Amino acid sequence: MTFLDKLKNIAGDSLTHYYELDGTNKTNDLVGSVNGKVHGRVHFRDDGAHFDDGKSWIELPDSPDFSAGPTKELTVLAFVEVKDWTRASHNGEYVHYMGKGHSHAHEWTCRIYMDGGGGEASARRRRTSFYAFNPSGGLGAGSYVQDAEASKHERMMTGVIYAKGRGSHPGVTRQYQNGVKKDEDQLSGYNITPEHTNTSVGIGSRGDNTGFLVGRIRRVAFFNKALSDDQIKHIYAARAEANAGAVSAPQEHASAGNDEVVIGGAKHAIDGVNVERKANQLIAYTAAGWDADSTKTNEFGTEVVVAPSGKVVQVRKGAGDTPVADKGVVLSGHGTAREWLNDHATDGVQVALPEALLPKPPEPKPPVHPNPPTRVETPSTARPDEANALRAQAAELRKTADALDVIATQLGG
Prior knowledge:
The N and C termini lie far apart (127 Å). Helix 1 packs antiparallel against helix 2. The chain has two domains: 245 residues, Jelly Rolls (Sandwich), CATH 2.60.120.200; 104 residues, Sandwich (Jelly Rolls). The chain is 16% helix and 30% strand. The chain is of the alpha+beta class. The strands form four sheets. Strands 1, 3, 4, 6, 11, 12, 13 and 15 form an eight-stranded antiparallel β-sheet that branches. A seven-stranded antiparallel β-sheet has the order 2-5-14-7-8-9-10, with no helix packed on it.
């Protein structure tokens, strides 16, 4: 079952548009009929759309399905990987990796704050925010997640807007990361009433030169309701199941680079080998090169034991200090790396490791032979004519001897 099938099962008819953004489907809308247009050079590969030059983006034409309103809910979901957190933006603070709106026609935006930026960026380093605005602009109501140690890996980011409120509850924005709600803010705090404008949706940027993502995006989905916490959690779980299923199976045995590991078609950088594990790191431990007989880690991580065959034989969550077996590998993850291991590592799954971590085959031994065969001398060449001549001479000599013996008997009388 594909990820899209799982989305439909979880969200039902509330799923209005879906963009896989892979090498096969590119910007085609696989649920609705709003196909996208590429600006610049976007590279579509099996793992999504790659934005590498800091000036390319994808435009989705305007549709009411992409908007929230006074009585209309909206959920926006995308899988995002930031490859460069230092890329300068229009104001040196933040980059929009998705959004809808421009000057005097604002709606919502997905924003990341860059490393080394000015203004509020220094206090919001690597913050990922989801904002709702009034059409006139100004301050927006934004919910966020801030991970100062965010590494180069894929996250499922989900933003929710509902403005009509429920009972005595006012409208809100919500930000989710990897299926978990991280923040919620009331629209009334900034007097926000979302409205539909005639602006397009930008992927990789907002389309108004307010910064461009250098990274990767795939599986962009829009829903015409505020998905529940459980629904978003189940979608994130479906991601891992789909990665390990038929759709991603060809990638499961993909080769690993010199500093990465592949589990169930998903890749993650290895931050070190046989060194102390630190925050949000994935460390590989081997018996050769590690002075201890165990990882010597604390309980705040997940550790995966990989047999020499390349299969996972044990997953230990919340229990460090895993024994390091001869010729095997222990993958130890903390923080975001721990979450990645929890999502992908299960008993029996195949793991692709860097060549340097693979067990070395034993040196071949010289062949051992049984008792060597006895050497057989080659006989000299036979000469039958000479042998027959000698036999004839012997016969004649025996006749002469017999005759001489008869004469001797007669003489002796």
